[in-house]
Specification:
With 224 residues, this protein is of the alpha/beta class. The chain is built from seven helices and ten strands. A hairpin with a 5-residue loop joins strand 6 and strand 7. The structure holds S-adenosylmethionine. S-adenosylmethionine binds next to loops.
Length: 224
């Protein structure tokens, strides 16, 4: 009997339990630990993040960004969500220089972008290498929920894979070799589609051309 392929690798049975039991919390989020954390910090600083702001890291994984952002921000100003709270807790314990700077209740399990318990003080949000694993209807719903839930949001920085309009209907090889797909992970969107989804959620998209790990594209979403 053939098993159906999950729509996201993170939905594979026992995915998190097995990887955490094997001590692979860095691998779950794709490795390139320090480099990718630093890139995310730079993206946020360029988007105006300062220590007094309040940051939400959506799909935060093992806190590849969090271990740097918690040190940078004033205490209590970092919040995170992920489909696996166990993964965030492992990151807190293993990767933070001083875990007491990050209250455990700031790490919220949420696979629906409903952001339960996230305060409305959030000024900046980032969703890095998360939408790349999710189908476009989930991305559209996620963006709309983020927009509705965070009234003081100034910037949402998120990544997707883009494919040229003429090639978006089939598999597409990204600049660093990753092959993305319209209908299975890793997913891509055309630029027009990405702009449409972002606007439909109530944001104005600004495409930021910069080299990101695995050839992802960065979108700066400004509340409209
Ligand atoms: C490639 S990792 C990136 C993690 C983190 N943003 C970083 O850059 O280190 C993707 C993350 O998305 C999380 N994830 C997958 N589907 C999700 C969903 N529907 N809602 C929230 N998080 C999700 C996974 O658990 C994983 O931690």
């Amino acid at each position: 009997m053939t098993r159906a392929r999950p729509s996201s690798p993170y939905l594979a049975p026992a995915f998190y339990d097995r990887a955490l039991a094997e001590g692979r919390h860095r691998d779950i989020v794709g490795g390139r630990w320090d480099e990718t954390g630093r890139i995310q910090m730079r993206i946020l600083r360029e988007a105006g993040l300062a220590p007094h702001h309040h940051l939400l890291d959506i799909g935060a994984g093992a806190l590849r960004l969090g271990c740097k952002a918690v040190e940078y921000l004033e205490p209590g100003h970092y919040w995170a969500t992920d489909a696996s709270r166990a993964l965030m807790l492992r990151g807190r314990e293993a990767e933070l220089a001083d875990p007491s700077r990050l209250p455990e209740d700031h790490l919220i399990e949420d696979a629906e972008f409903a952001l339960p318990g996230v305060p409305d003080t959030i000024t900046h949000a980032i969703c890095f290498a998360v939408f790349t694993h999710l189908p476009r209807d989930v991305v559209a719903q996620g963006l709309a929920r983020i927009r509705q839930r965070l009234p003081r949001l100034r910037r949402l920085m998120f990544t997707v894979f883009l494919a040229p309009e003429t090639a978006a209907a089939g598999p597409f090889r990204q600049p660093d070799g990753v092959v993305t797909h319209p209908d299975r992970p890793p997913y891509h969107l055309s630029r027009d589609e990405a702009a449409r989804l972002t606007r439909a959620a109530g944001f104005e998209p600004v495409f930021r051309d910069r080299m990101l790990p695995r050839g992802q594209s960065l979108i700066e979403a400004v509340p409209a």
